[in-house]
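B., you asked whether I could sanity-check this one before it goes into the benchmark set. Here's the sequence:
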Amino acid sequence: MERLQRELEIQKKKLDKLKSEVNEMENNLTRRRLKRSNSVSQIPSLEEMQQLRSCNRQLQIDIDCLTKEIDLFQARGPHFNPSAIHNFYDNIGFLGPVPPKPKDQRSIVKTPKTVPDTDEDEGAQWSCTACTFLNHPALNRCEQCEMPRHF
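And here's what the prediction gave me:
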């Protein structure tokens, strides 16, 4: 009977020890879950928001460019060779190097008249990053290629 009593006490101690370990593990799990949920619900900082906006803007521009390229490739038909587009001079009909200007004609060269780029009410015209077309300041996309404006 005493032997059984001692074994019962030993088993009770083991059970208590296991219960305390399980409680500790559950507490750790609860802490980790709270920590994870708190980190997800935090509001991003101003710098992070600006960085995300910049990345989103760049991704939208990349998407627009790729869409335009796909449309261009599809418009050229099934026999279009995309490897030919990599040689810039072949595509523009380059005939050779541009000869240097004669030195004695510097005084003859007229300076082109400048066209005012700004309307006083609307601000400066902006140049498209894709096609370099000068667009009206009120437009958010290029008139020629519909590329979004960089702000």
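One thing to flag: The chain has a mean pLDDT of 76. Otherwise nothing jumped out at me.
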